Amino acid sequence: xxxxxxxxxxxxxxxxxxxxxxxxxxxxxxxxxxxxxxxxxxxxxxxxxxxxxxxxxxxxxxxxxxxxxxxxxxxxxxxxxxxxxxxxxxxxxxxxxxxxxxxxxxxxxxxxxxxxxxxxxxxxxxxxxxxxxxxxxxxxxxxxxxxxxxxxxxxxxxxxxxxxxxxxxxxxxxxxxxxxxxxxxxxxxxxxxxxxxxxxx
Amino acid sequence: xxxxxxxxxxxxxxxxxxxxxxxxxxxxxxxxxxxxxxxxxxxxxxxxxxxxxxxxxxxxxxxxxxxxxxxxxxxxxxxxxxxxxxxxxxxxxxxxxxxxxxxxxxxxxxxxxxxxxxxxxxxxxxxxxxxxxxxxxxxxxxxxxxxxxxxxxxxxxxxxxxxxxxxxxxxxxxxxxxxxxxxxxxxxxxxxxxxxxxxxx
Amino acid sequence: xxxxxxxxxxxxxxxxxxxxxxxxxxxxxxxxxxxxxxxxxxxxxxxxxxxxxxxxxxxxxxxxxxxxxxxxxxxxxxxxxxxxxxxxxxxxxxxxxxxxxxxxxxxxxxxxxxxxxxxxxxxxxxxxxxxxxxxxxxxxxxxxxxxxxxxxxxxxxxxxxxxxxxxxxxxxxxxxxxxxxxxxxxxxxxxxxxxxxxxxx
Amino acid sequence: xxxxxxxxxxxxxxxxxxxxxxxxxxxxxxxxxxxxxxxxxxxxxxxxxxxxxxxxxxxxxxxxxxxxxxxxxxxxxxxxxxxxxxxxxxxxxxxxxxxxxxxxxxxxxxxxxxxxxxxxxxxxxxxxxxxxxxxxxxxxxxxxxxxxxxxxxxxxxxxxxxxxxxxxxxxxxxxxxxxxxxxxxxxxxxxxxxxxxxxxx
DNA sequence: TCTTAAACGAGACGGTACGTCATGTCTTAAA
DNA sequence: TTTAAGACATGACGTACCGTCTCGTTTAAGA
Lengths: 201, 201, 201, 201
Prior knowledge:
Distance between the termini of chain A: 64 Å
Number of strands of chain A: 0
Number of helices of chain A: 10
CATH superfamily of the largest domain in chain A: Tetracycline Repressor, domain 2
Helix content of chain A: 55-70%
Oligomer: homotetramer
CATH class of the largest domain in chain A: Mainly Alpha
Largest interface: A-B, 58 and 58 residues
């Protein structure tokens, strides 16, 4: 329906090449200097598009940056599936941590920082990246529950937060190093719990 | 020593009232509009100080903001000590979450966002606030270990991250609601662990 | 000829209502804010016509403004004819001055100002308004010559310039007030000449 | 007084070189393309000054243009004084007309056009140029009256308008050619008056 | 009746200049 | 030597119009 409506809209069609040129330029700027060097002016200059054209389609810097980032990062963190859900989870956490340690992590941190003054930036990141990732991790956890590796009464949301939030605080605030050893310690801690082991019997 | 040296330094002394006026103005601006409305220009105008004076003593916006925030938030999250370390921890988490949900939380989010382009801002926040808080929580946990409430082989650092990082992702990215119910679910999850309960016997 | 050629041209005819809507919108904009608020964009929005349509028929802003102004100001300065050419001239000057003092004068000033960057605007104004007026004043003067009120060897062009140019400098530069008293003094001065009266005998 | 006050004002003094660089750049742009090519952006680029600096000192384009023009045109229309006031007046009119026909005339026309949207531009031109010129012509006329060349009861203001306004309408609207022959005809017409010669005796 | 050419609305697009904001550096005179 | 005041170069902001350019629709003449 909406497709038909759009097809019959009068006026010149949106120029797809321009759109792509803008997103490409935006992504390159992001990659080179994170959000710090990311300016509409710069994107316009690099893409050859007019500032007005950019403003026509993206209301804020953050939205453009988010879309550029998402467009160019289709292949998110993916890990092979093994027989052990615990091992899969740990592998996924390690992979995400390694991304956070890389240049991409710097870009993501910039997006989140930008998100403070433009909540929709963060929303775009959440919808575009986090939800996709959450779907994967949720699946792993549910498999783990089915296989008896995780508690059957597990609060999946809280579990995911406990496991993955530290990666963000490491990225944004340097609270931790995000190296493999740390990730393992974190995973173990959440896995076994911090409470004293229940007494047998 | 340093006092004597400073007293005998030639030239006009640093004006303490000016320093305070600047910090006071900075804090009010922070409170009113978070980092978004926080500008050196604005602080100068509001405090009656010259921009030069501000730049002489604070290298960046973020540092000034951090100091202003810290100066005015001496009384951090404090909870009464009960006999149960678990209850204390839970109370502390609830308190911090309530702060994060308040206007102060918005300011903190701004500081962290600013920290992306000025790492020393985040460092100041970490040293000034987080470490103090960590000292408290670490104490609670160590008491809990001693009392047999927590595992004796606990990785305290990982435990604190698992418990507190979700508050930051909630604050910065809205990943969760930070209400009391959520905090309890989070605490329980980390307390009992996500792994299947070891079989008795 | 041209009419026939146009009639036999293929394709859709020019839409007369659109043309009128454009001119009407243009005139209203002119009236409201002079040339300052007059933009093609604005005319398009107000008239409901497309910018393309406007550009198809009017090469420049000034031309459109001039035509809009002329179309809506068919009834130019007209004065009743009395037995005295001198009185008629004076009445005509007073009338024109009063127009120049009004909102219409402001629009005219705008057209002339615009004419600096688009000479054809001024040309349109000259042909459309000034020539018509000159025809009237020239007639009055020639009648005055015939009646013995004006010198028989009068340089009509120079005389009209001396009488009417001050109205324009008053309009454009505020060199004079354009009130009735001034007009009379001007007319008297040009009438009697500035030279010392020729000696009798 | 104001000098003393200014001397004791705190803060950095206005940079004279920058001021001159701006005026010089402004004048060159004016000379090259009149008001059409005159942009604050252009002046900034050419002078090496910042746009903000320009806006600090000149509120509008027109004011800057007017000042730049006046500064660089100190030596206005000057004519040698002869024994005949009539001859002097005619020479002065010819000289001014020749200026109006030149590139400078184009610049003046631009200033007047700009004055439509910024009245203070025209005011600056009037005070800076026209008044100086009027002082000269008024002197000539008064000398002429004293010498018996002009009527003793002459309305000097009206006379000057009748003589000089046509030069402006020629400049701005091309109503006349401004060549020497025209100037002479104009001068003669105003000199002798357009009325029929009074009968001797 | 069908074709074809123009008029027309809508609106995307590359531009230019606008006037403003905040940055961080600098100069000056008083304290 | 510190301070308040403020000038300055820089660079990005977001906006307003400009004039050009597709688009698909509508209208009428000619084949």
